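Worked problem 6 (solution included).
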Amino acid sequence: MTKIISHMNKLSSKQRAYIRALAHQLSPIVYIGKEGITEQVIDSITKAFNRREVVKIKVLENAPETSSVSSKIISEKLEELNLVAVIGRIIIFYREHPQNPKVVLP
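Solution. The predicted structure is:
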């Protein structure tokens, strides 16, 4: 089941589809577990965005929040994120790298 939360996005549907296709081959970089979204999780996401523009996050079964709720919390805590999709327990975010953008959006 793919759920796209479009009210938080600045991306077109074509751009979201393109980023979802890029993210398909990626493994999740950050995992949200039983502690939920802690400062360490936010720090890990921030560090991941320093290295790449597309970040895939997995919400584990023992996490206190659902993936939809987790995506909203992360979007509120971090600026200029684009929520691309919530697919089951996977969250995909995009943020253009300020100095060295590599993803060319259609």
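Discussion: The beta strands are 2-3, 30-32, 54-59, 82-87, 90-94.
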